[in-house]
């Protein structure tokens, strides 16, 4: 799997790339797909808002936007993740920031493999899968620095 990280309007931070690759590959292969190229863009609220406006005609903040370029059972895409919104949501829901960051990335990959979250039933399944993968995968966003 080709995986690239980008930082837009935020300070770069440690990401354990082999663990991210392993986590994403696990989800993708569990759903019967092959791994292509993925990029994760960690950004500010302003950046994701502008992306939402420019590409989706949505005028609101969100924690993640997933752009799907998958073809022929090969999963590829861009995950645009607002670390500002992830931090706010972690405080709001009283969860660990790094766990919430990982959950959001899992959420994006689940969209790439075909899960949607438009109805209450779909949202429930999406949350169940997020919790499952959070529980069985090692969080790649845990910094080893002290």
Could you write a compact summary of the structure shown?
With 146 residues, the chain is α/β, with parallel strands linked by helices. It contains five helices and four strands, in the order E-H-E-H-E-E-H-H-H.
Helix content: 40-55%
The counted number of beta strands is 4
Q: Order of strands side by side in the largest beta sheet?
A: 1-2-4-3
Uncertain segments: none
List descriptors.
4-stranded mixed sheet; globular; alpha/beta; Collagenase (Catalytic Domain); 146 residues
Note down, in words, how this protein is organized.
This protein is of the alpha/beta class and 146 residues long. The chain has a single domain (2-136), classed as Metalloproteases ("zincins"), catalytic domain (Collagenase (Catalytic Domain)), CATH 3.40.390.30. The protein has five helices and four strands, in the order βαβαββααα. It has helices spanning 17-30, 45-56, 83-93, 97-112, 120-136, and strands spanning 2-8, 34-43, 64-68, 74-82. A four-stranded mixed β-sheet has the order 1-2-4-3, sandwiched between helices. α1 (17-30) links the parallel β1 and β2. α3 (83-93) crosses α4 (97-112). The radius of gyration is 14 Å and the shape is globular. The model has no long low-confidence stretch (mean pLDDT 94).
């Amino acid at each position: 799997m080709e995986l690239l990280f980008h930082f837009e309007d935020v300070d770069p931070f440690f990401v354990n790339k082999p663990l991210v690759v392993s986590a994403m590959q696990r989800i993708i292969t569990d759903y019967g797909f092959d791994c292509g190229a993925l990029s994760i863009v960690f950004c500010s609220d302003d950046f994701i808002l502008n992306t939402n406006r420019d590409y989706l005609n949505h005028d609101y903040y969100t924690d993640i936007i997933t752009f799907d370029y998958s073809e022929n059972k090969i999963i590829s895409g861009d995950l645009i993740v607002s670390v500002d919104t992830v931090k706010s949501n972690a405080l709001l829901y009283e969860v660990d920031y790094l766990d919430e960051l990982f959950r959001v990335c899992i959420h994006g990959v689940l969209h790439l493999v075909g899960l949607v979250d438009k109805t209450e039933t779909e949202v429930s399944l999406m949350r169940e899968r997020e919790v499952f993968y959070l529980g069985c995968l090692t969080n790649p966003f845990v910094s080893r620095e002290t």
